């Protein structure tokens, strides 16, 4: 067994070691990977004071060329360390290595998008001289950083979520304080260290893990915070939003119970492999994971059988193996919860087509349920596990109504070879994005990514997050020589 690595507090100018430490364990075999110092109230105040002080010094804001150079150097370092970062992410988060490598590629590309956006995003001037009042005037529009950003992140994409929260803050010129997920903080520390190696002054990006939820709330709700970025559960996100200081803006990304509508002419040759990936990727621990498939009654049984066969063929196990397709759930308690939800659905009449049982090392067998009750937990709440439900329907409008019936709405999809059917369903699904002949978890990092209803607030995606982290300042110049 290798030596356990220790990660100290990443507070600018602070070298002390905390009296309290968090143990970070592998979700696959529970062995301790590393320890991380945790922050007390003084530490929380220190990072806030450092960040607000550096932002208040406008003469020493990081100019755009310097930000671009830092991000470009960070890209080179990430490319050099890509395999180690992917391995580390798979070890602490349990996402299979094949998918962690893809996440690392996306992480690098996310930083590249920050650079591209910084180079090309310009303000549109406000027109003047179009009536007597606005004559002899023109406007200049400039983008400025909004202020101190606090980013609270989730465990399921420990590399790319940090890129989506920290990268835009650096690009926008905001000092950022990151609170990573307690289960997967190591990837965050490593990425922020790369930004520092690339030339970002330490006070512009700090990382802490508060010792308890009360201190996290203290961090988030401090009046020195200008923008709060949150990725996590709806319960926590909406609660913290309700406590924000006046003037603090925010973006919240929660989960969904993603629906798929499959018309009778859906091409199963295309659909099944995509739906299997969308359902069981990262053991279903994805906010837009496929969960509810409404399939026309003429194909529903076939869909269930083929999807169950695909699920049973998946290799479940060690995330560090190149062969593994489905890894463990993040905590043992999650295995217990998912198992109880599935059993509840089966007891209420759902047909278990495959899976439905736990496996060694905190894994859960990919599970397909046929026609569970619409009021069961697997039908109404985000499973966040490798479980997918199939519901037969005869009336398309009724299927759409059931797909839209929940208090969450995020990404959705429709499978049909008829463009009219695809557009009919797309127009009527309650979603911020609808994928046609693709699973619900499709995403590229420059597209908008927005939870609706209880699923979130504001819009993610690199260019959209950068927009949130900046203000447009208008300067109106008046001169009688302007005609």
Explained architecture:
This protein has 483 residues and is of the alpha/beta class. The chain has 2 domains: 5-254 and 455-474, Aldehyde Dehydrogenase, Chain A, domain 1 (3-Layer(aba) Sandwich); 258-436, 3-Layer(aba) Sandwich (Aldehyde Dehydrogenase, Chain A, domain 2). The chain has 15 helices and 22 strands. The chain has helices at residues 41-56, 64-80, 82-93, 97-120, 160-172, 186-197, 213-220, 234-242, 268-280, 300-313, 332-347, 377-380, 396-403, 419-428, 462-468; strands at residues 5-7, 21-25, 32-37, 137-145, 148-152, 176-179, 205-207, 225-231, 249-253, 258-262, 290-296, 351-354, 358-359, 363-364, 367-370, 387-393, 408-409, 411-415, 433-436, 452-453, 456-457, 470-478. The strands form 6 sheets. It has a 7-stranded mixed sheet with strand order 12-15-16-11-10-18-19, with helices on both faces. A 6-stranded mixed sheet has the order 7-6-5-8-9-21, sandwiched between helices. The chain has a 3-stranded mixed sheet with strand order 1-3-2, with no helix packed on it. β6 (176-179), α6 (186-197) and β7 (205-207) form a beta-alpha-beta unit. α2 runs antiparallel to α5 and α9 crosses α10 (300-313). 52% of the residues are buried.
In short:
With 483 residues, the chain is an alpha/beta fold. Helices cover 38% and strands 21% of the residues.
Structural class: alpha/beta
Main pleated-sheet profile: 7 strands, mixed
CATH architecture of the largest domain: 3-Layer(aba) Sandwich
Shape: globular
| CATH-level-4 superfamily name of the largest domain | Aldehyde Dehydrogenase, Chain A, domain 1
CATH class of the largest domain: Alpha Beta
Tally of strands: 22
Distance between the termini: 76 Å
CATH topology of the largest domain: Aldehyde Dehydrogenase, Chain A, domain 1
